[in-house]
Design brief:
- This protein is of the alpha+beta class.
- The chain is 52% helix and 14% strand.
- The strands form two sheets. A four-stranded mixed sheet has the order 1-5-6-4.
- Helix 1 (54-63) crosses helix 2.
- Mean pLDDT is 85; it is low at 221-229.
Length: 229
């Protein structure tokens, strides 16, 4: 049978318990559209475990007979987001002991995982740099490296982290190079700071961007363009 954990809310505005009238409440249960404090909801004996430590959270939850999910509403994202758990104090203590016992092994595993991710990220960046130089043979090597690093930065959501970028799609790679040229080799950013609308600024700098890209596509691109890179 699937377990259904109680949901505890951290209210954004001052609320009082509908039964004991205590408040303002730091956390509450909502029953029949009315707020209840944790004591009245029979959860007052539980302790709060903030989210962040996956192993500790999992072990505390597994060791606790009764536990609850704590959430808070994010107005900007218009959704409830998990803040942590309420668990039995004894269960939390047991979980902390277990985590301390294997802390060394977990640290070593995290280090190995980080090394593998770093190697993979370096491989993605190197492949992207090679493709940039294949498509734009006159692009300076240092500039191609800079573009590849920027486009493939982990967690950036940029071209190098997309499926198209990882597959070295020609359009995606060209888009990354064009974006770099726009910001580095043209007055585009200055135009934005002067209040020029984005689409107008892009139109103004488009000829300069295409001139750089044409030069970089040539096997002997102009010395001026190489120097700018």
């Amino acid at each position: 049978m699937d377990l259904v954990a109680p949901v505890v809310v951290e209210p954004l505005r001052r609320r009082r318990c509908s039964e004991c009238h205590r408040g303002p409440l730091e956390r509450m249960i909502v029953e029949f559209n009315a707020p209840l404090c944790l004591d009245c909801a029979d959860l007052g004996h539980l302790v709060f475990l903030r989210r962040g430590d996956t192993a500790l959270t999992r072990r505390a939850r597994e060791a606790s007979t009764l536990w609850a999910v704590v959430v808070r509403h994010n107005r900007r994202r218009t959704r409830y987001e998990r803040q942590g758990l309420l668990v039995e104090e004894a269960a939390l203590a047991e979980a902390e002991r277990a985590c301390l016992a294997d802390a060394g092994a977990r640290a070593a595993r995290r280090a190995r995982d980080a090394e593998r991710r770093a190697a993979l990220d370096a491989e993605v960046t190197a492949s992207l740099q090679q493709e940039i130089l294949r498509l734009f043979p006159s692009c300076p090597v240092d500039r191609a490296t800079e573009i590849a690093l920027h486009a493939s930065a982990k967690g950036s959501g940029r071209v190098g982290r997309t499926a198209a970028g990882r597959s070295l799609d020609r359009g995606a790679v060209t888009a990354a190079v064009r974006a770099s040229v726009r910001h580095v080799d043209t007055p585009y950013d200055s135009l934005l700071m002067l209040g020029v609308p984005r689409h107008q600024a892009r139109t103004r700098v488009a000829p300069a961007i295409e001139a750089v890209l044409r030069a970089w596509r040539l096997n002997g691109g102009s010395a001026e363009v190489r120097e700018r890179g």
